[in-house]
Amino acid sequence: MPILLQKTQLAAKLEALEGTAENPGAGDALLVINPGFKPQVEMHQRKIVGSDLSAYKSLSGRRSARLAFEVELKGSGSPGVAPEWGELMRACGFDETIVPSTSVSYAPASSSIPSITLALYMDGLLSKLWGARGTVRLNLSAGEPGRLAFEFSGADFEVTDAVMLAGVSYDSSEPERFLSAGFSVDSYSALIEKLDLDIANTLQLRSDINRPSGYSSALLTGRRPAGSLDPELTLVADYDWYSKWRNGSEGAITLALGAIAGNIVTITAPKCRYTKLGLAERSRARTLGADFECNRNNGDDELKIELT
Question: Residue range 238-267: average pLDDT?
Fold first, then answer.
């Protein structure tokens, strides 16, 4: 029987002991888009010489895996209740702050970042990785639901036969579109169509010869948040893009999606600095391709996502 693409489930669970696999179940499942599992096994050729030209078989070495997917940017539907993607954010180096019945917010962390186990069920086949940490990218396009694109690196993996999860109850809230967003950059209400923001975590696998995979876990060792937007080009009198770039000025990016309690997403990056500007066009009007970096204010505050 073929394995059908549509019949796919993802479940994720933070690990009680770093690098030790959990067993995510129905209560850990969440809705995802475009999941892709990429296992890796180091292959070592044995360059043995002999009386003939035939090669000896290679040997398998260390192994690891990556898992990439997207989720819709949306709240849980209830103020003060974490969204289904909350644990993913924590494993990508974000602190989660919950104010009961009011808000849930995510801001970068530099310590106490948990590892996670991810289980991808594909119509009877289970691909699982553990000892994982990841990075995340925010993608916003005019009129479309926002998305968070995750990529996790895991210290080990396995692929087995397994039935699909039963009794799954997915979050029923719907994402708001990138409209009526109150967007501004450096206090200027620029006319844009797209905004991308990448937390750009640096991940390293920790070598451990006492583990069968050769790794104990993926370690988050740094981040360099950056992004891009595509504003309409303006007169200098309206907003001086090039002087801001040339002088290294910093300004805040702010926006908010939604207006219904439990599904309002507010995004703030307080210290953004342009790193590249290039001419472009949209519908025969001049635009800019504007790259920017997200810098620290007091530390661990380059970006904040708040759900109310």
Answer: 97
